[in-house]
Amino acid sequence: MNGRPPTRGGPAPGGARARHHPTASRERGSAAAELAVALPVVVLTLLLGVGVLGAGLRMVTLQDAVADAARILGRGDATGDAGAAVARADPGAGFAVSRSDDLVCVTASAEARILGGVAVPIRATGCALEGGR
Q1: Helices 79-89 and 22-74, interaxial angle, to 10°?
Q2: Residue 99 parent element (H or E)
Q3: Which region ranges are annotated with the description Disordered (predicted)?
Q4: Res. 70: pLDDT tops 90
Q5: Residue 110: how many CB atoms within 10 A of its CB?
């Protein structure tokens, strides 16, 4: 003999070819089709998430800027200084000032773009005591 122990039931190792079932090739094709459908959805979801996070970051930055602008006006400084604080945070943002009782409020608004084409309006308001009190 050849020095190997005899094997029972089944083909010798390495000597038999694996059988190909017709369902195996169809399953392989369906998996590729599922991936082709799912991949764009996953990419679009990721891009949307990144866009929303960017808009949120822009909103936080704008909120911080209007709070600074309201404090600037509350101290009695010029409106131009408050506008410069908002413009540093977001050059495209418009702002308005309102006063009531002892408060001065600054509201800024801008548009954030998500996925390059969807415009989402963002608005932030900050108030401070008039006269720096």
Answers
A1: 170
A2: strand 94-100
A3: 1-27
A4: yes
A5: 23
At 126, which helix (H) or strand (E)?
A: strand 118-129
Stated pTM of the model: 0.66
Q: Which range, 5-14, 27-36, 91-100, is most confident?
A: 91-100
- Separation CA 79–CA 95 (nearest Å): 11
| Rounded-to-integer distance, Cα 130 and Cα 73, Å | 7
Q: In this structure, what is the dihedral angle of CA atoms 104, 110, 114, 116, given to the nearest 10 degrees?
A: -160
Confirm if 129 and 103 have CB atoms less than 8 A apart: yes
Structure tokens at 21: 């079932």
Lowest average pLDDT, out of 19-28, 31-40, 59-68, goes to 19-28
